[in-house]
Amino acid sequence: MNIKSWILPPLLCLSVALSLPLSAAQSETPGNDATLFSADGYRIAQYRSPTPAAIDQAHTLDTAALQALLQQRPDTALLNVQALEWRNGVFIEQEARMQIPGSYWLPNVGKGALESRWADYFRAQLATLRDKDSTRPLVFYCRADCWMSWNATRRAASWGYTALYWYPEGSDGWQDAMLSVEPGVPVPLTDTH
Prior knowledge:
Helix content is 31%, strand content 13%. The longest helix is centred in the first third of the chain and has 17 residues, at 3-19. It has five helices and nine strands, in the order αβαβββββαβαβαβ.
């Protein structure tokens, strides 16, 4: 047996495998993998993983652009959507979570499948924030590589909200830029469910 006869078949297999398109399970395109995305396109698992570069329904901001927006529109609502355990009608916080100063912390509204209590809470908070000005900018963030802010932004858009912004760098990017942060305090939820 010469060397060509045992090297050539594996090389041909590798060449064929490399020319095949990625399967849906290998793609990060929203909606392609039923284990990662719901039927309506929200991320439902592995929330801390690389996110897309943008969201169709919102403006994507880097840290400098967020600072510029805050200068232009000081009334901008910063919405921190980091998850937090909810047990027996109380948020359970193991350690302080840092956020951009002046943010509203709306825990759990960025999950892919929202229980009715969280959907009602989210809708009520958005309505309150936009009560007097329907053009008030809403900026959604979490931490870097966190799909919860992506989900929350898309959901707000599906409910008809506009002037939406997504800050995918989140509190991590803000801190990396050496900007000040403060401990987050969750906006209370009155659990009626």
